[in-house]
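Record type: monomer structure entry
Structure origin: computed from sequence
Chain ID: A
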Amino acid sequence: MHSGKLDIMQQPTSNGTLIARLTGKLSLETVNSFLQEARAFTDEKLVLDMSSVSYVDLAGVGALVQLFVHRRGQSKKLAVAALTAQGAAVLQVAGLTKLLPIFPTVEAATA
């Protein structure tokens, strides 16, 4: 079992985009607090910097989809950036690479 925590550091930009740098594990133990915190972001565009996420499980994948749908319902955008190899593989297996806007870098996601 992968226990752990997930920290979110906010980095607002000047163009209405919020970069949220996630550090830790996006897993069953952390998805509730992740969703609670991420749903509170009201910025026009939210970029999740996943470069420091060491582990993503199916609960984490589900949380990303929930956040995407929540933001789309508010006419706001979500982008996922800088996935680790493990995170990218999980999203690929879950078939989400066509649903979620995924970028190789934070810079590409904010461009």
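Annotation 1: The first strand starts at residue 6 and ends at 12.
Annotation 2: The chain has one domain: 6-110.
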